């Protein structure tokens, strides 16, 4: 299909437009009087409508169109922005997003949005929104079998059709809008359509059909279709005639009113309202309002265009698959570079050394570029949160202000893909458990509005993401009590826990402190999943919290997952790699430094008691002969706050390696997180320090 | 598929101790000379470790160990047969890989009831060919421990 080649572009651009819609809507919520923002949203919606209509996604185009009408009314100052109106517009954007996602997943982007459409119409005609639901319900009862969609007219008339309808009514014809619903079990839909049209055409003229006649003939509609019809027959007669056709569930005939055809070009509501007539009297006012709006928009767009100017650099879209292939090829090169380096070191040939060195440098640059090419700003994850927090705070009746900092921070795509869900969880947690209700906040002398700050920044080879709230903080006593009752810690060991360790108990599995389990944040299965996901990404999470003041959840993530820096160590003949990210430092200790504490060998490391782990024992390394050295090489590693000393035979050095999995056959090997291929072509195993420290 | 192809099964024949075994060619990805095997701690005894197979880390199973045949010293003829099964890639250490032959499907018999060695669980059938006896392996069972 020809369309297919544009489909991807369509989906990408639709997403962008929807994103800009919701961003601007949130902005609008803060400054309800800034019509420049409305213009921005209007433009996005308009483009989206045009694109989806071109691509043949009618539901999408239709809903956008309705939304656009409302925006247009706001823009022309016919309607004032209220939270209720924004709710409906947000709802529409949500629906639009779902439709686009459906299309992206290969669906047809169809969705029943009649309720939202009805609400939009209400807004447009200046009626209260709440009534819609009732009306729809009542109407649905009246129409008995007919579904909700029957009530909502989908007919859009162009100028020609309007003229025809208008002229014929003037000439004494009746203009009707007929909505026909077939029975659910109707087998020959096209045949029934044909019979209905046959009757209609004998008695008058069909001006317009929705869906179009071609589509009706191909049975490309659900159970319901509408026609605009002019006739001399009365509605009752028409109804009884059409009902004679079998397998028809319901016929709804409504007269098309003159006022409707004369007034505003996009109007299509059937029910006459006082407001609508009023509207038709104010076209002059409209023009003035438009001018005003135009003036305002020029001032505000000039500021927003400044914001967007940096995005004007030339870019091309490259499929992620290709970047993955590039990455794989580059990994092969990294392995070969390692090999070349070790050969060069053995041969010790001047020119070879020089070349290898130069190549290594170029490779380093290349690596930077390849890695940064796969980096995308964390914005892509963050930008769905404002809307989420907005919805959550409304549901929970809390006032929450979400602040996002450092959305431009870049992360590897693989990390981005994985980090979304844990962040959703943590933010929900902060909103649900962290921020208190406005009453409590007021009672505690805090401002009613709670703050949640989402912050991302680079530091070294890591990206930090922090979620900070000024809520209730963690009640450590409550946490401890719960942890003891759930058997996560024992009473004795609880005494020795630091504040931070107690905070982190909420990350343990089977833990939930909320007195009432809500459907917003987890059921105690949540936060431990967050922790596991983050650790599987090679990152870590920690919690700082002061009761009554707030909490900070801070996540540390590696920039990339596939190439990591390690320290190579040797035990007997075997080489193991320890990720530099876990290493604090290395040291050589004397036999006499080793102390014994309850069957556990420990050392005193800078004033701290650090347990020793003999990798030789853990990994059951076969010894040809017992060695009894006076000195031991120790790698001090950490997991969160805990330290441990890994005893090895000797250090080899630091190296960049490509992380490889052990394949599908060997899974869940204790304390081994993967493998890598060394310069000499041999495989070395990567030590999983997290597993060594319980 | 024509009738001729249906009647034959192409197999790789390899030797372990004094017996000959066969694996369908469709499961075999390649035959490698013995190379450095990195031991992986805390795995089953028959898992020798992993090798670098052209950039892919591939686990290695010692079939002698798996079949409880006394271990011999590795020799010049020792080979690693790389097999694939259900998206897994695994190498088998064998004494030697001798042959690729077509065996007529109708010469394959069900495993005789009395074999009396530990390997009986891994056998899917035997094929008699002139004066050779080929033991067809049940790869699934070789790979997956049923302890």
From TrEMBL, chain A:
Residues bearing the modification Phosphohistidine: 46
Q: Is tRNA processing included in the keywords of this UniProt record? A: no
**Which domain of life, per UniProt?**
Bacteria
Q: Which residue numbers delimit the CheW-like domain? A: 563-694
InterPro entries per UniProt = Bact_Chemotaxis_CheA, CheA-like_dim, CheA-like_homodim_sf, CheA-like_P2_sf, CheA_P2-bd, CheW-like_dom_sf, CheW-lke_dom, CheY-binding_CheA
Q: Which GO BP terms, alphabetically?
A: chemotaxis
Domain HPt residue range list: 1-103
Segments for region (Disordered): 276-311
Its recorded reaction(s) are: ATP + protein L-histidine = ADP + protein N-phospho-L-histidine
Residue ranges of every copy of the Histidine kinase domain listed in the record: 311-561
* SMART domains membership: CheW (SM00260), H-kinase_dim (SM01231), HATPase_c (SM00387), HPT (SM00073)
Keyword presence, ATP-binding:
yes
**PANTHER family the record matches:** CHEMOTAXIS PROTEIN CHEA (PTHR43395:SF1), SENSOR HISTIDINE KINASE CHEA (PTHR43395)
The protein depicted here goes by the name Chemotaxis protein CheA
From TrEMBL, chain B:
Q: Which GO terms describe its cellular component?
A: cytosol
Highest taxon of the lineage: Bacteria
For this protein, the record's Pfam families field holds:
CheW (PF01584)
* Membrane-spanning intervals of the chain: none
Domain spans labelled CheW-like: 8-147
**Gene Ontology biological-process annotations:** chemotaxis; signal transduction
Q: Which InterPro entries match?
A: CheW, CheW-like_dom_sf, CheW-lke_dom
Q: What is this protein called?
A: Purine-binding chemotaxis protein CheW
From what organism does this protein derive? Ureibacillus xyleni
């Amino acid at each position: 299909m020809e369309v297919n080649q544009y489909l991807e572009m369509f989906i990408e651009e639709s997403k962008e437009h929807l994103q800009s819609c919701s961003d601007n809507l949130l902005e609008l919520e803060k400054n309800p009087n800034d019509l420049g923002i409305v213009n921005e949203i209007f433009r996005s919606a308009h483009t989206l409508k045009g694109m989806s209509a071109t691509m043949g996604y009618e539901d999408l185009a239709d809903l956008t169109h309705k939304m656009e009408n409302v925006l247009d009314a706001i823009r022309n100052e016919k309607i004032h922005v209220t939270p209720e109106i924004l709710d409906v517009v947000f709802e529409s954007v949500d629906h639009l997003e779902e439709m686009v996602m459906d299309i992206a997943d290969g669906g047809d982007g169809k969705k029943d949005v009649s309720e939202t459409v009805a609400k939009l119409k209400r807004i447009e005609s200046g009626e209260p929104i709440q009534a819609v639901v009732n009306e729809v319900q009542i109407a649905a009862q009246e129409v008995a079998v007919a579904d909700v969609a029957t009530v909502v007219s989908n007919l859009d008339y162009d100028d020609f059709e309007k003229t025809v309808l208008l002229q014929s009514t003037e000439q004494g014809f009746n203009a009707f809008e007929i909505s026909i619903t077939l029975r659910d079990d109707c087998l020959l839909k096209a045949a029934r359509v044909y019979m209905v049209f046959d009757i209609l055409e004998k008695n008058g003229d069909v001006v317009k059909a929705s869906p179009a006649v071609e589509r009706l003939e191909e049975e490309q509609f659900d159970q319901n279709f509408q026609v605009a019809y002019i006739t001399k027959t009365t509605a009752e007669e028409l109804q009884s005639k059409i009902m004679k056709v079998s397998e028809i569930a319901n016929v709804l005939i409504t007269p098309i009113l003159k006022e409707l055809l004369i007034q505003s070009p996009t109007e299509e509501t059937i029910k006459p309202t006082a407001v609508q007539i009023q509207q038709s009297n104010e076209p002059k006012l409209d023009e003035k309002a438009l001018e005003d709006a135009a003036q305002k928009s020029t001032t505000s767009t000039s500021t927003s265009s400044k914001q967007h100017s940096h995005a004007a650099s030339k870019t091309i879209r490259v499929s992620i698959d290709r970047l993955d292939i590039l990455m794989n090829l580059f990994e092969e090169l990294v392995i070969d570079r390692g090999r070349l380096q070790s050969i060069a070191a053995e041969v010790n040939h001047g020119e070879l050394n020089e070349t290898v060195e130069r190549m290594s440098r170029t490779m380093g640059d290349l690596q930077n570029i390849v890695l940064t090419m796969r980096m995308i700003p964390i914005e892509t994850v963050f930008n769905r949160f404002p809307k989420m927090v907005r919805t959550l705070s409304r549901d929970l009746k809390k006032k929450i202000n979400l602040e996002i900092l450092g959305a431009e921070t870049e992360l590897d795509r693989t990390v981005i893909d994985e980090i979304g869900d844990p962040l959703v969880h943590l933010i929900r947690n902060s909103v649900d458990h962290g921020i208190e209700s406005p009453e409590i906040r007021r009672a505690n002398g805090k401002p009613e509005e709670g703050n949640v700050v989402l912050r991302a920044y680079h530091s070294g080879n890591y990206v930090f993401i922090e979620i900070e709230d000024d809520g209730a903080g963690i009640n450590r006593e409550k946490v401890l009590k719960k942890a003891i009752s759930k058997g996560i810690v024992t009473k004795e060991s609880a005494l020795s826990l630091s504040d931070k360790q107690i905070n982190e108990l909420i990350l343990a599995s089977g833990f939930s402190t909320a007195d009432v389990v809500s459907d917003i944040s987890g059921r105690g299965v949540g936060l431990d999943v967050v922790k596991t996901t983050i650790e599987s990404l090679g990152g870590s999470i920690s919690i700082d919290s002061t009761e009554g003041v707030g909490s900070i959840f801070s996540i540390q993530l590696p920039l990339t997952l596939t190439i990591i820096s390690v320290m190579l160590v040797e035990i007997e003949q075997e080489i193991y790699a320890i990720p530099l990210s876990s290493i604090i430092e290395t040291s050589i200790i004397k036999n006499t430094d080793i102390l014994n504490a309850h069957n556990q060998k420990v050392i005193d490391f800078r004033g701290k008691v650090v347990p020793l782990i003999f990798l030789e024992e853990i990994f059951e390394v076969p010894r040809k002969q017992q060695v009894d050295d006076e000195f031991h090489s120790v790698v001090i590693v950490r997991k969160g706050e805990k330290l441990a000393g890994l005893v090895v035979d000797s250090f080899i050095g630091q190296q960049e390696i490509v992380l490889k999995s052990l394949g599908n056959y060997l899974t869940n090997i204790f304390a081994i997180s993967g493998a890598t291929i060394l310069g000499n072509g041999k495989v070395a195993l990567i030590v999983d320090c997290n597993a060594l420290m319980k | 598929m024509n009738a001729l192809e249906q009647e034959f099964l192409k197999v790789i024949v390899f030797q372990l101790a004094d017996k000959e075994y066969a694996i369908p060619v469709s499961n075999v990805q390649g035959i490698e000379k013995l190379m450095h095997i990195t031991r992986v701690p805390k795995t089953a005894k028959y898992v020798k470790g992993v090798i670098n197979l052209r950039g892919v880390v591939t686990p290695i199973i010692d079939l002698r160990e798996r079949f409880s045949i006394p271990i011999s010293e590795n020799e010049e003829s020792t080979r690693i047969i790389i097999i694939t099964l259900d998206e897994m890639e695994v190498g088998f250490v064998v004494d030697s890989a001798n042959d690729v032959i077509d065996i007529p499907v109708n010469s394959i018999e069900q495993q005789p009831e009395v074999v009396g060695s530990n390997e009986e669980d891994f056998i899917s059938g035997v094929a008699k060919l002139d004066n050779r006896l080929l033991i067809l392996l049940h790869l699934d069972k070789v790979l997956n421990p049923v302890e």
